[in-house]
Specification:
The protein is of the alpha/beta class and 214 residues long. The protein has a single domain, classed as Rossmann fold (3-Layer(aba) Sandwich). The chain is 24% helix and 27% strand. The strands form three sheets. Strands 2-1-3-4-12-11-10 form a seven-stranded mixed beta sheet. Strand 7 and strand 8 form a beta hairpin. It starts with a strand and ends with a helix. In the presence of PdxS, forms a dodecamer of heterodimers. Only shows activity in the heterodimer. InterPro entries: Class_I_gatase-like (IPR029062), PdxT/SNO (IPR002161), PdxT/SNO_CS (IPR021196). Belongs to the glutaminase PdxT/SNO family.
Length: 214
């Protein structure tokens, strides 16, 4: 598959940034808002945003069940931040009754785990399958609380948050080792936003390779 067609769910979030990154990786990237657009893709990206709003918009655009069905049939998918929440099996947060995850990834995700907008930070991560550290941008990010037997951990928060740009980030307790990138078969998810790191498409290239491999 020389040029896979990869859709970006275009209901909210960093749609344009994901589309541009995928194009630079050699894919044909298209926004997805309708079922016929979903039917045309070889893979799908669920961008960041707000997971309760994303759930509501999937219903509004009559996309929730078609997307869930395609994921169950093996459609490769990548979710960043809120996209990770939507791909999960369940969300560990009593306040998120309005979130209906799609169940494509056997993980339990904690929503807004790193805190509020003011607690956003950046750091460098070792990422399995990518040779050099990946610079990661965390904005009201989730983390993975539990993983199923078939899920691989690709990245976790390092000790001391080496390279973190937030002054108090190194003083936060209990963050080291938190899981922030996972893969199960053709489904990839990160708690951070690689589309916001200009000039580094390695996570998107990783996903494009997954799509080509299917």
């Amino acid at each position: 598959m020389d040029q896979p067609v990869i859709g970006v769910l275009a209901l909210q979030g960093g749609v344009a940034e994901h589309l541009a990154a995928l194009e630079r990786c050699g894919a044909r990237a298209i926004p997805v808002r309708r079922v016929e657009e979903l039917d045309a893709v070889d893979g799908i990206v669920l961008p960041g945003g707000e997971s309760t709003t994303m759930t509501r918009l999937l219903d509004t655009f009559d996309l929730y069940e078609p997307l869930r069905a395609r994921l169950a049939d093996g459609l490769p998918a990548y979710g960043s931040c809120a996209g990770m929440i939507m791909l999960a099996t369940s969300v560990d947060d009593d306040r998120t009754a309005a979130v209906r995850p799609l169940g494509a990834l056997d993980v339990v995700v904690r929503r807004n785990a790193f805190g509020r907008q003011v607690d956003s930070f950046e750091t460098d991560l070792d990422f399995q399958g990518i040779s050099d550290p990946v610079h990661a941008v965390f904005i009201r990010a989730p983390w993975v609380e539990k993983i199923g037997a078939g899920v691989s951990v690709l990245a976790a928060v390092p000790e001391g948050l080496d390279g973190a740009t937030t002054p108090d980030a190194t003083e936060r307790e209990g963050l080291a080792g938190r899981i922030v990138a996972v893969q199960q078969g053709a489904v990839l998810a990160t708690a951070f936003h690689p589309e916001l790191v200009e000039g580094d498409e390695r996570v998107h290239r990783y996903f494009v390779r997954i799509v080509r491999g299917r």
